[in-house]
Amino acid sequence: MAASSQGAAAVPLRPPLPSGNGSDAGVAAEAGNPKMDVERFRHRVDEYICKADELEQKVNEVVEYYANRKQPNNSKGNSGGKDKDKRNLVIVEATIVITQHKWARPFMNPVDVKGLGLDDYYEVIKKPMDFGTIKNQMEAKDGNGYKNVREIYADVRLVFTNAMTYNDDRSDIHVMAKTLLDKFEEKWLQLLPKVVEEEARQKDEEAQALANMQIAREAGYAKIARDTNSELDELNVHLEELRKLVIQKCRKMSAEEKRKLGVGLSALSPDDLNKALEIFAEDNPNFQTTGDVVDVDMDAQSEITLWKVKFFVKGALELQAKNCASKADDNLKRKKEICDALAKTARKRNKKLSSL
């Protein structure tokens, strides 16, 4: 599609204006001093830009949320003290039986490595453990305690396996540790059904809590999306009113400016030309935009339409020039890289020839 020398164009959109007490009609009524008008319009545009930035941030939050909502949530909420007591209840039953045994005393506190002169203890035992340490871990409230009963079970076993590993199997400590470990394992097997039941209950509660959180978050972001869409519609209305008001303030376009506008239209890309012709059609329903050649009678167009076209053409041509400059820079860079590569290859070849 081509345009005659008369041409067509469109106005580049600016950010919408927030609604307020002072309407655009009020601005028009107060207008009189051109400089004051410009300042008023500039102030309005600044308000639009500020509001648009706020809406953009909301939109980005919604987009980011829906882009990431299918990713697994690895965060786990800290369980309260009552829930922790419930989780530990089963293992407490087992440990109480063991710690109350008459042979449990040697295992209640950390091994006195220095006092007993056990110089090689830490070489043999990589992770020391005792019931005092286990108790502190079970009562920890800083989030560093046990996460589940199986961790406690593992440390209780570690108390006895450490003693059995370091001490000879005929020593009293070894025999005491093995006896208590057997009793503990027996008690653990009796309580294991409760452990499984508690783990299943906890898993269901966590899954339900995550589902409720997901529903609440989706509802919140859906509301943000609806509100933002409504605000954008309202701002677009205000923007269109302001654009029309600004164009109405424009002076009458001269014949030379109309001629240059036609020249500018002929320099547009096909897509931009189609957009320009659509602007003519917006203000003139009878305007025909189909056909290989579209004739535009500039003198038959309203001043508002002509200035819309002028603003659009100016913005489109500036963008085209910027893109062309960018492509030219890319081509120049590519040529330089090729020349550098050829020069490097030539230097290598000459070096080889000189070494022969």
Automatic annotation (TrEMBL):
Q: Which segments carry the region annotation Disordered? A: 1-32
What's the superkingdom here? Eukaryota
The answer on whether this UniProt entry bears the keyword Phosphoprotein reads no
Q: Which residues belong to any copy of the Bromo domain?
A: 99-174
Keywords (alphabetical) are:
Bromodomain, Transcription, Transcription regulation
Q: Give a yes or no for keyword Transcription regulation in this entry.
A: yes
What are the residue boundaries of the NET domain, all occurrences included? 243-324
Enumerate the transmembrane spans. Answer: none
Q: Which InterPro entries match?
A: Bromodomain (IPR001487), Bromodomain-like_sf (IPR036427), NET_dom (IPR027353), NET_sf (IPR038336)
Q: This chain belongs to which protein, by name?
A: BROMO
